[in-house]
Amino acid sequence: MAGANLPAMRSHNTALVLDLLRTAGEGGISRLELAERTGLTPQAVSKITARLREEGLAAEAGRRASTGGKPATVLRLVPDAGHAVGIQLDRDELRAVLVELDGTVVAARHAEVDLGAGAEAVLGAVVELAGELVERGGDTLLGVGVGAPGPLDHTHGVLHRVTGFPEYDGFPLRDALAERLGVPVVVDKDSNAAALGLAVGGEGGSFACLLLGTGLGAGLVIGDTVHRGARTGAGEFGHQVVQLDGPPCHCGDRGCIEALCLAAVARGDVAEAARVLGVGASNLAGLLDIDLVLLGGRTIAAAPEPFVRGVAAVLDERARREGGLGTTIPVRVAPGGDRGVAEGAAQLLLAPLFGRADG
Amino acid sequence: MAGANLPAMRSHNTALVLDLLRTAGEGGISRLELAERTGLTPQAVSKITARLREEGLAAEAGRRASTGGKPATVLRLVPDAGHAVGIQLDRDELRAVLVELDGTVVAARHAEVDLGAGAEAVLGAVVELAGELVERGGDTLLGVGVGAPGPLDHTHGVLHRVTGFPEYDGFPLRDALAERLGVPVVVDKDSNAAALGLAVGGEGGSFACLLLGTGLGAGLVIGDTVHRGARTGAGEFGHQVVQLDGPPCHCGDRGCIEALCLAAVARGDVAEAARVLGVGASNLAGLLDIDLVLLGGRTIAAAPEPFVRGVAAVLDERARREGGLGTTIPVRVAPGGDRGVAEGAAQLLLAPLFGRADG
DNA sequence: CTACTTTCGCAACGCTGTTGCCAAAGTGCA
DNA sequence: TGCACTTTGGCAACAGCGTTGCGAAAGTAG
To answer: Which Pfam families does this chain map to (chains A, B) (predicted)?
Structure first.
């Protein structure tokens, strides 16, 4: 509920243009194309791009072949005009990346860590790993993004009860890190970070990013925006109940997807794990009418095909039941590999520049 | 992905002010209060409200007691400056209402109908019932909104496979009605219409509106906006699977909430029906982190207390498991009674005036 | 070389919300 | 009653946004 004024309009349009420049990548994009895609007049685009070039965020990059008249000048984002550090803080390891405006990773670090060693030790390890990258970012560093196991409070950057490590409940990770590093810090759930990274990376529309590793979580992107919900706790996919009065879960409930899935994995029954995951994905797809399901996390990485096949089978069946009008929802392995969360965490700071209200 | 210009900014701010006027109701609201709530300057608000008064949409309505200076002039929405007709098209009955800008119902009609009698007969019944109301709306009529059983295509106003009446699959309800009535028509799922009505009626934030009647559907409001999903099919709550390999559902799957719930109702076990509904609501609440669950529909209306109690019990347990930081999600009966869907359907045309992108 | 197309910037413009200022209409106190 | 003060709200000038009108630049086509 905010009123709009001229500066707001200007920054909106600037972000729009900047996002198109980013999406265009190395190939670049012409002013007229920018005008068409934004709905603005060519003259407005010229003014906006002139400002961006003055600020060093954009640059001319050659010309395109003529189509019968004056050849178009290609504009490009200047990637190193801004940087962000992204960190994945997992239960047993730490990953950090330094990325440029266009998402390119220019440095990466990795370390082992034990959450059980206490907040002070973990914080020290993060600062050590990220400190160097922060320095390399220099003046153009926008800040540090952290993806951590949920649930947590994204707005305030406070951890909640991390499964297996209850002592972190209420730990103000964001403020502690911001003080030590001296730069802005944003904290989000690892699955949300991964989802944001994929959304910025080109997955349009609405999709779910399911991460199966030591736990099971979901990042939901609805209409190009990460959906976090009222208390930023959305995406509790692991504890969706799909079997009334089923086997007990460590969360205290019964028949949770996570419990069924991890148990099946533990006894080597990948097909059943995939089927359970598929039922959960199918529920989610029906409820939210999403376009795509992406699977990620260590367990998936260890055996991608059977999981993709199993989940797809359940979704196909749903589509078949819905008749001719129902479309099968594609299932894929989330790109990005084991750095997906860290890269997405960096986007927590970069994305707002491009008009994505996910910061 | 649209560029903003001055007219867009103007209509945004106008809608903002208009929505606050509507929300303020009979009590009205002062210019300075509007300025505070929108973030605009008092001068901008003065200009905007002057325009609204010229157009007849707003009017001055007395003064407020002084707080030490010049007393504030109270502004009010002029309710009959605009009208919309809302229709609930159910499997066996028809309801229509004529509502004013502020949501007040100024006329209501009811009729019995049999979907099985064929599209032509049903269309005729709708035209007969709504025609009179459309005329009463006169020049100020914005159009007709229809809430029908899902699934359907909101964007194109085309019905899909209505459970029990497969012959309607592909029926272009919107265009057929628009031609007969000669006014704009918008079609949406009944549960979405009900949810929109509640959102406009004052339920803020994010909530789910679950309708249990001849079927079971959900309307999802996420961040003050009805969430319809990529193919406007979101809210397929009834066929969420909560019991792997459970009893077969008429949809072809097994263990759907709808099947379990309706079976429990059929055998008189309301407590079990409420528990199943509660598990579904709990899944939904965890996945989307919503603020509130509202229950509606005939079956709920017949026995509200046990359903509310049963659903609340499941949600309470989830909150307890999540520990101190988890908040219990309140459960209530959806206000609006048996006209909730029709009134919400009218809002399909009124809401866009107030900046709600649900039209 | 001429005609045409396409790109793109300069200058004037219209319209937005903002700022500076002042009048109006109350309260509170001497 | 009179003066000081607070709050409301409009008038006028203003800055800044995208838009429009127009012309220069830089190609292709014949």
So the answer is: HTH_24, ROK
B283, B290, B315, B356, best to mutate vs chain A, most A CBs in 10 Å = B283
- Specify the CATH number of the domain A82-194+340-354: 3.30.420.40
Reduced to 3 states (helix: H, G, I; strand: E, B; else coil), residue A338 is helix
The CA distance from B286 to the nearest CA of chain A, in Å, is 5
Cβ atoms A273, A306 nearer than 8 A: no
pLDDT at B324 over 60: no
Q: Which of A240, A244, A288 sits opposite B234 (nearest CB)?
A: A288
Q: How confident is the model at residue A162 (pLDDT cuts 50, 70, 90)?
A: confident
State how far the Cα of A111 lies from the Cα of B197, in Å rounded to an integer: 52
The pLDDT value given to residue A326: 62
Instruction: Answer yes or no: is pLDDT of B61 > 60.
Output: yes
Q: Could you read off the pLDDT of A84-134 as tens digits, one per residue? A: 999 999 989 999 999 999 999 999 999 999 998 989 999 999 999 999 999
Q: How far is CA A97 from the centre of its chain?
A: 14
Question: Which residues in B57-79 are b (16+ Cβ under 10 Å) and which e?
Answer: bbbeeeeeeeeeeeebebbbbbb
B215, B198, B200, B358: which is closest to B293 by C-alpha? B198
The residue type found at A191 is S
Of A231, A234, A321, the CB nearest to B287: A234
Name the architecture of domain B81-194+341-354.
2-Layer Sandwich (3.30)
A331 φ, ψ to 5°?
A: -125, 130
- What are B230-264's pLDDT values in tens digits? 888 899 999 999 999 999 998 889 999 999 999 99
Nucleotide nearest to A66 (CA to C1'): D27
Q: Which residue is nearest to nucleotide D28 (CA to C1')?
A: A68
> Identical fold at A6-77 and A82-194+340-354?
no
Please check whether strand D approaches the CB of B2 to within 7 Å. Answer: no
Give the domain ranges of chain A: 6-77, 82-194+340-354, 204-339
The answer to whether the beta carbon of residue B32 comes closer than 7 angstroms to any atom of strand D is yes
Per-residue pLDDT at A68: 80
Closest Cα in chain A, distance from residue B82 (Å)? 23
Domain B6-77 in CATH 3.40.718.10? The answer is no
A to B CB pairs, distance under 8 Å: 172
Among residues B80, B190, B289, B358, the one annotated as catalytic is B190
Query: Which nucleotides of strand C come closer than 7 angstroms to any CB of the protein?
Result: 4-11, 14-20, 23-28
For residue B163, the model assigns a pLDDT of 76
Taking the CA of residue B139 and the nearest CA in chain A, the distance in Å comes to: 30
